Amino acid sequence: MQDNVVKPDNNVINRKDTALEHQGTKCKFWIDKKLFKVGKVHGENWAEILSYKLSKLLDIPAAEYEPVTFFLSDKLTRGTLSPNFVGDGERLINANELLSGWLGTEYDQTKRYKHKAYTFSRSLALFKVLKEQIQPKHSLQPVQQMIGYLIFDVFIGNQDRHHENWGFISSLEGSLYLAPSYDHGASLACRLLEKERKNRLVTQDKGYQIKHFAQKANSAFYDSERLLKTYKLAELCIQKYPKESFFWIEKIRNLTQENLLSVVDTLDDSWMNSIEKEFTLKLLQTNQKYLAELQNRYV
Fold it and tell me: What is the pLDDT of residue 170?
């Protein structure tokens, strides 16, 4: 059945004249140099949108995500639309390609998860290895920008910063610059079941409250043989890059409850229900408090 075009000026689009996107496992395709993507669960859509809104508050370079719907076989489908951040003649080089080029057969670039060779120290060392090629794209220095992504991951509980979810863009002149942060669909506990959200919001059991839940979030990075929790990742950032880490933590701790509410309330109830909004707000506040307390310990 042919797709229907419905009110394209109201963020409802039709899948035609599009190009398929093959990377990853989600339903996605290109339309007018914008990537339409559908989350594997509905929460991934709002996680992308809210994470982008938060990145704007913090001045973190990030791919833009806006809510859209489209009709496919008469079924209304929700997703996100993201303009291509790679310019004409440029190329996105994911971190796995660069790490493999540097480390050779020691590094398997095809392995995305449980990759013990994918460590925090190696990822940041890549900036030194490529020092002569990397140029700043913004007012931020490249390492400062990358630390910003990692501290941001802790704040939003992003568990999916694997080696294909960050990288560099090769410019027309042949230099490299750090790509904006992208793919935040595994953040903000967006895959949590509704029943668990409700229970964690009201429980008196300290071992089941949101604070405990936030502490369990895994990053994609390893430190030696251990998979790093996001909270431990924040500690490593501070220990190795204190100035850069404090710069971003200060921005996060200065966000007010009104700032966070303005982001969480971005979407109406058809996209994100009241329980999801309440849980997301408290999760952000929990992570914000942790980062502030962590900074105080190291100052």
Answer: 96
